[in-house]
Amino acid sequence: MKKLFIIIGVLFVGNLSGQTFTLKKCIEVAKSNNPTYQKTIINAEVANSNLASAKANKLPTTQAVLSQGMNFGRSIDRFSNDYINQLYNSTYGGLQVSMPVFKGFQKQYLTESAQILQNAETYNIETEGNRLSINILKAYLDVLATQELLEASKKQVENSRTQIAKQQKMLDAGTSGKLELIQFKNQVAADEGSQIDAEYNHQIARLTLFQLMNIKPNESVVFEQIIPFEIGQETVYNESSNPVEFLPEYKSLNLQSKSFEKLIKANKAENFPEVNLYGQYATFYASTNSERSFFQQVNDTRNGSFSLNIAIPIFSKFQNSPRTQFLNVQKKMVENTKQISQNTLNQDIETARLLLTAFGERYKNASKQVEISEENLKYVELRIDAGTINPIEFALAQTNLARANANQIQTKFRWILQKKLLGYYQSGEFDFL
Questions:
Q1: pLDDT 10s digits, 47-77
Q2: Coil, strand, or helix at residue 429?
Q3: Which residues of the chain are under the pLDDT cut of 50?
Q4: For helices 391-427 and 316-385, what crossing angle results, to 10°?
């Protein structure tokens, strides 16, 4: 999975020029490049390794032993048991097996704990992916909003420049004075200043989105518009829906809590007797027995044994009690984290529902303001053409329209954000993926 994301990221980043990025594509690129998200994938790989290690610990320990030695000085002949003082060679070969039989099911609990943690890390990948998707969503909507605000400011500048051209003609015809022309030029300068601010805000929004995707900013990249909702439409939130049951972060926390339960049982197993089964089969050769050949000695000295050992701990309860207390505290911390997260989620849901309603009403009001401001500006321009109005009234009408447009655009995208967040809280899925 990690390699797949990296390959996708390379393909995307390598050919950005002139591309149109959808919201889904931005999220895919971010997942392939974002180091925090990649870290969760690495953590999952570590969990897989820990699980494999826990399973391996349940297997018997088996080893083949082969040794070649040389003895000199006073020693005991392994065949006659007499003292000898000579240099001789010896060869030893054998197979040894050690198998754990019982330790309060400790190894089983450790394996189950590792399996649970592996599943928890899988949910953590999904959790970080959702968190990254939400951040990308916010940044993406901000780009679209600032883009519309920039277009609105450009239209405002264009309209002001049109009025200057008209005033210049009226000045040349002697139907208007120099003062009116200067006032209109001042309005153009003010509108151009607003356009500069809008351009700066748009570039900042694009930069933020590129940084979240962890790719170099590219001016030629175009971000696709989101299919518009019917802004302000009623949204019914299913009260019976419980995000705690299906959101991955809570599944992960539940699994982490269960993992600590297994670790606590595994630690308490240290107080149980430990039973191990040992077995060995070996043979040897020594050069002191010149009457028998190498293979004859190897055949003569074949021997094996089995033993069952029981070790009963005496003071382990006092030694393991602090560890058990620590694990219980860790389990409580996970449960407390879940409770805090759940409270925060409930607050976020209630806030999103409230904001969705508020932004819906504000959007309707802003749309009325835009309609009225456009009509007002239209009549002001007609009166300017007739020479019956001064530039101050035009500036006021132009400013009111700009304010109404900005309010409508910002409210629209804030409403869309809350709409998508509520959809995620209700189903655990994003409608744009």
A1: 999 999 999 888 888 899 999 888 888 887 7
A2: coil
A3: 5-6, 8, 10, 12-14
A4: 150
CA nearest to 280, candidates 257, 303, 309: 303
Over residues 236-288, the pLDDT tens digits come to 566 667 888 889 999 999 999 999 999 999 999 888 998 999 999 999 888 88
User: Between 106-173 and 248-268, two packed helices, what is the crossing angle to 10 degrees?
Assistant: 160
Contact (CB, 8 A) for 109 and 263: yes
* 92 beta partners: 67, 284
> Cβ of 116: how many Cβ atoms within 10 Å?
22
| Whether the Cβ atoms of residue 420 and residue 359 lie closer than 8 Å to each other | no
CA angle 43, 44, 48 (to 5 degrees): 115
Instruction: State the Cα–Cα distance between residues 416 and 413, nearest whole angstrom.
Output: 5
Strand partners, 280: 96, 305
Q: What is the DSSP letter of 285?
A: E
Task: Give dist(CA 257, CA 331) in Å, integer.
Answer: 5
Question: Amino acid identity of 371?
Answer: E
Tell me what pLDDT residue 311 has: 87
Whole-angstrom distance, CA of residue 225 vs CA of residue 417: 14
DSSP string, 3-21: HHHHHHHHHHHHT-TT-EE
Amino acid at position 198, single letter? A
What is the model's pLDDT at position 120? Answer: 95
* Rounded (5°) CA angle 18-19-20: 125
196, 210, 399, 407, 419 from 146: Cα distances, Å: 12, 15, 18, 12, 19
Rounded Cα gap, residues 327 and 261, in angstroms: 8
Query: According to the model, what pLDDT value does residue 12 have?
Result: 47
Measured over the CA atoms of residue 257, residue 258, residue 261 and residue 262, the dihedral's sign is negative
Q: CB neighbours of 429 closer than 8 A, spacing ≥ 6? A: 423
Are the CB atoms for 288 and 77 separated by under 8 Å?
Answer: yes
Q: Are 198 and 153 in contact (CB under 8 A)?
A: yes
Under 8 Å between Cβ of 297 and 233: no
Token couple for 218: 């590219």
Helix, strand, coil % over all residues of the chain, rounded to 5: 65, 15, 20
